[in-house]
Amino acid sequence: MKSSVGQEMSFLLNIRENVLLPGSMSEMHFFLLIGISSIHSDRVILAMKDYLVGGHSRKEVCEKYQMNNGYFSTTLGRLIRLNALAARLAPYYTDESSAFTE
């Protein structure tokens, strides 16, 4: 059996394996995730929404919102990690306490 520190390290390393594909997220899921993120720029939020909800390509989104591809990758990585952590937290909350439905 792994130690709790070992389990935590394993989880943090496995976050890299989580992927958010273009068009893979509902609008509700996206806005809930943005709501708990530190992302506040309207331009960045709209770019991420076009990619994750709308299914637009990375190239299209970067051109439309004049966003550097490196910054896009960094922001997407932050959302991937946050999504993985939220998924890990979800079992600690009961269905009765959920205020939102999709």
TrEMBL record:
Record GO biological process: regulation of DNA-templated transcription
Protein known as: Major pilu subunit operon regulatory protein PapB
Entry-linked InterPro entries: Adhesin_operon_reg_prot, Fimbrial_Adhesin_Reg
Gene3D superfamilies xrefs: 1.10.10.2690
Species, as recorded: Escherichia coli
Lineage: superkingdom: Bacteria
Keyword field: Transcription, Transcription regulation
Pfam family, one: PapB
